[in-house]
Amino acid sequence: MPDHDTLLERVRKLLAKAEDPAVTPAEAELYNTKAAQLIARHGIDNAMLAASGQSGDDITVLKLPIANPYSRDKASLLTSIAYPLRCRTLLHRVGQGVEGVTVFGFRTDLARVELLFTSLLLQASTQLTRVRPEERVFRESLAAYRRTWLHGFARAVHERLTVAEENAARTYSDVAGGKSAELVVRDRTALVQQAFDREYGDLRSAAPRRLSGSGYREGHRAGTRANLDPAALGRRRSALPVR
Q1: Which of 91, 94, 39 is nearest to 64 (CA)?
Q2: Beta carbons of 172 and 181 less than 8 angstroms apart
Q3: Beta partners for 88?
Q4: What is the pTM of this model?
Q5: What's the CA gap between 205 and 91, in Å, rounded?
Q6: Which InterPro entries does this chain map to (predicted)?
Q7: Which of 174, 79, 73, 162 is closest to 124 using CA atoms?
Q8: What is the dihedral of CA 54, 89, 69, 139, to 10 degrees?
Q9: pLDDT tens digits for range 16-55
Q10: DSSP-derived secondary structure for 60-104
């Protein structure tokens, strides 16, 4: 398996190709998909090493602050990243907003969640300052449009990460302690859920939100093009503000 730095360099090169204006949209999507596959493979590598006793990996928590505006939608993006990476989230609500999120998971998976969230929130926030509803949409508020845009962005990211993680586990050829990668991943997911339930199993889930804006499709399209380069995460640790 490649070491961490080698893997990040491979991902960086793939995404540089995807961002080249000379490539077609189909080629760019292919490069982005390959980058997501490498990130997922990195997670499976860590899981298999821990299952075979070659490295330590324990369940812990990560607490991330969430800033306004659109704090609930930013928290939704974090959850959309966390669940495919076998983590669980608890939102800390204040009125109609969210001031922070606690993420439960194995330490190596939490590291991937934090890195991806930092990068993707920056990308979404940067684009969000420019998006506007179409003029033909009668009297739609900018806030409503941006909320649905973020919802679409988060959904696309969730879909991409889910496919990449499932494929990585299914195609992994090695075994750890007699278990396939799919079984190791299933066991880790169950352990995280059990730990989460022990702490917060008596809490009631929030009711589904009803969003009225028309930005979902454009946000989803942006999410399918979002850069999943984990190497970029260390270069920018804070997201741009949304005005």
Answers
A1: 91
A2: yes
A3: 104
A4: 0.77
A5: 10
A6: DUF2786, DUF7168
A7: 73
A8: 120
A9: 676 666 777 677 777 777 777 777 887 888 888 888 777 7
A10: EEEEEE-PSSSHHHHHHHHHHHHTTTT-EEEEEEETTEEEEEEEE
